[in-house]
């Protein structure tokens, strides 16, 4: 394919909603270009998930132009120049060309510009400063193509200065290297990240959390966290990560097994940690984890059910019933990561497969049946049910109703007066 209109055939670029958004933004003489991740990923054949667009139109004008074409707009960060076009198939983040005029290490005061080069220079890495016209023509103002080809993540301009503008860039450096880099990280950039690490303390828990989880999801996450540990960065953002050995093994298992197309970062985070419930609580508060993620980590790290690779089917059914599928799978992954690499692979895999195909059995015993056996209305009903359920679990979830009624009668006779 010729170098011009290089991305003309990219699927996302030819979708009707994409064309409608680009058309609307350019309806009045303005220019809009795809920017950042979508161009980068399209050029290296990686999946394009979200589409970012840069435009010469001001946010208010862009909003009006889109709405004039019946496209819904949400003013997500309008003061920083960003609005979101919401279409039935995708969300498009649209940012007016801008320069950062004042920064404090966390956020920037911005000014709009008509200059594409200025807009490119305020971005973080050369590979993230690529643009593409609606017809697929790629623009590369800062040599990002060459770095992308070499799989090299490099700061635009002076690394120290760029980090001091926004310390999150330290974590973004490790994220993009883990996802798209090859070999060792760029030495100069890495050194700057290490030297500026204390500034990470300025950042909000949410921003740090989002980046850490994105790094944790990468295929090369093991190496990334090792590099962050070696450069003293992990001690600033995640001093709790005392089990990188287990984390690395889990990442390797997931990669080898090919069962993760989209790795879940929470079990990966759990694998790094050796914490009790209070420890998880403190971590969750600092990183503003959702209650759901906090509870999941707590359960994963404190549950005492015996999970070994040689569990019998019967033990698996019992564990699944008592723990639930999600916790069971999280514990299996942790157990697998604790095992000697390459050992018992078949068994560990089978446990996960069993969990996936498992359907929770339901004790066929209604309140009416318990009442009919002579138990008065009230808390006794629940207690009797629990008694029968315990036996039922031990019986490997027998589904013979006759035996269950027999057991019910025995429990009632012995314990209900
Ligand atoms: P992905 O969406 O795959 O995570 P991306 O490159 O699109 O990757 P985003 O976080 O969506 O990353 O940001 C879009 C673009 O905005 C980036 O490619 C980069 O050019 C710029 N950008 C985002 N955050 C920063 C930042 N903190 N400092 C400088 N530039 C940034
Ligand atoms: Mg993006």
Structural description of this entry:
It is a single chain. The chain has 4 domains: 1-150, Beta Polymerase, domain 2, CATH 3.30.460.10; 158-301, cca-adding enzyme, domain 2 (Orthogonal Bundle); 303-357, no CATH class; 367-413, no CATH class. With 417 residues, the chain is an alpha+beta fold. The radius of gyration is 28 Å and the shape is elongated. The chain contains 21 helices and 9 strands. The protein has a 7-stranded mixed β-sheet with strand order 3-4-5-2-1-8-9. Strands 6-7 form a two-stranded antiparallel sheet. Helix content is 51%, strand content 10%. Bound molecules: adenosine-5'-triphosphate and magnesium ion. The site of magnesium ion has 4 residues, from loops. Residues 36-37, 50, 52 line the site of magnesium ion.
């Amino acid at each position: 394919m010729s170098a011009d209109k290089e991305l003309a055939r990219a699927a996302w670029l030819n979708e009707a909603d994409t064309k409608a958004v680009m058309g609307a933004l350019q309806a009045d003489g303005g220019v809009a270009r795809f920017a950042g991740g979508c161009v980068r990923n399209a050029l290296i054949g990686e999946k394009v998930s979200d589409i970012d667009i840069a435009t010469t139109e001001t946010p208010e004008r862009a909003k009006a132009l889109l709405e004039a074409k019946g496209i819904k707009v949400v003013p997500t960060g309008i003061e920083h120049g960003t609005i979101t076009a919401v279409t039935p198939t995708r969300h498009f983040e649209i940012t007016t060309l801008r320069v950062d005029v004042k920064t404090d290490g966390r956020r920037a005061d911005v000014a709009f510009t008509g200059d594409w080069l200025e807009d490119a220079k305020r971005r973080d890495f050369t590979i993230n400063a690529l643009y593409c016209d609606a017809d697929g023509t790629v623009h590369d103002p800062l040599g990002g193509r060459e770095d992308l080809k070499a799989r090299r993540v490099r700061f635009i301009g002076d690394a120290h200065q760029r980090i001091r503008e926004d310390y999150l860039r330290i974590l973004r450096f490790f994220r993009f290297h883990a996802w798209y880099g090859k070999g060792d990280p760029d030495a100069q950039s890495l050194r700057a990240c290490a030297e500026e690490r204390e500034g990470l303390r300025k950042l909000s828990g949410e921003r740090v959390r989002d980046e850490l989880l994105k790094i944790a999801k990468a295929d090369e996450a093991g190496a990334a966290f090792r590099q962050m540990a070696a450069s003293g960065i992990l001690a600033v953002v995640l001093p709790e990560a005392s089990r990188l050995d287990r984390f690395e093994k889990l990442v390797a298992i997931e990669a080898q097994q090919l069962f993760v197309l989209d790795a879940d970062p929470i079990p990966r985070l759990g694998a790094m940690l050796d914490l009790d419930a209070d420890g998880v609580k403190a971590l969750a508060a600092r990183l503003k984890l959702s209650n759901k993620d906090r509870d999941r980590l707590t359960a994963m790290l404190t549950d005492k059910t015996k999970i070994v690779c040689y569990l019998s089917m019967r033990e698996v059914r019992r564990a699944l019933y008592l723990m639930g599928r999600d916790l069971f799978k999280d514990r299996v992954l942790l157990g697998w990561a604790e095992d000697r690499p390459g050992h018992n692979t078949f068994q560990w895999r089978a446990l996960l497969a069993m969990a996936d195909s498992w359907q929770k059995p339901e004790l066929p015993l209604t309140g009416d049946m318990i009442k009919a056996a002579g138990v008065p209305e009230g808390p006794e009903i629940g207690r009797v049910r629990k008694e029968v359920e315990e036996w039922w679990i031990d019986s490997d979830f027998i589904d013979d109703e006759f035996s269950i009624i027999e057991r019910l009668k025995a429990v009632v006779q012995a314990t209900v007066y």
